[in-house]
Amino acid sequence: MKHAAAGTFIRCLDAALMALGLLTATPTIHAAQVLRWNLGSTPALAFDTLDGKRFDSSSLMGKVVVANFWATWCAPCREEMPVLAQLAASTHAQPVEYLLVNTGDSNTAIEKLRSKLPPGMASLRLSADAQDFRFSSLPATVIFDKRMRARWVVHGAMDTHGEPVRRLVAELMEEVAVDSGKPLKTLH
Alpha-carbon distance 123 to 117, whole Å? Predict the structure, then answer.
């Protein structure tokens, strides 16, 4: 019980520090830090949609998946939303899925920003059984390969061209194209 309380306290402290801007990037989008996924096995993408339904990630097998973790109070998160929308548009009709995963805001707070969320992108809510996706700062983006294995984690906001996410997605799309024998549309 003490361990659970300590974990809750640390998450609350992290959230408070992030809200004060002490752990997040400045509102201007800066280069993100890219790391290979090294947190062991890939957590399941087990989330709830904003309307309360369970999200089934099994339909994502065979696609590259970009899961962007964000919060309403995070200025860099809000600034990169249009960049994510551009990335999603540039891979339209390709085997790529973009997910927006809110990290714990109330439905009311999310609703206030809903009109600013990129259309056509699945908007999900981090649920209690997805604790492995807790990050110490936001935004954070996890990029999954076609077998739904986490391959990359991007800490911080991507630049206005979508880098480094654009490059990493292109690399993983090459793997999908090789296996499927279908030509790959280049990302603009």
Answer: 8
Residue that wins the pLDDT comparison between 95 and 48: 95
29 contacts 81 by C-beta, under 8 angstroms? no
Cα 13 to chain centroid distance, Å, stands at 22
Cβ atoms within 10 Å, residue 97 = 19
Assess contact for 157 and 77: CB atoms under 8 A: yes
Which amino acid, one-letter code, is at 91?
Answer: T
Q: Could you read off the pLDDT of 131-141 as tens digits, one per residue?
A: 677 778 899 99
Burial class (CB in 10 A: 0-12, 13-18, 19+), 2: exposed
98 burial via Cβ count (<10 Å: 0-12, 13-18, 19+): buried
pLDDT in tens, 105-128: 888 898 888 887 888 787 888 765
The DSSP output letter for 40 is: S
CB atoms within 10 A of CB 155: 16
**C-alpha span between 129 and 131 (Å, rounded):** 6
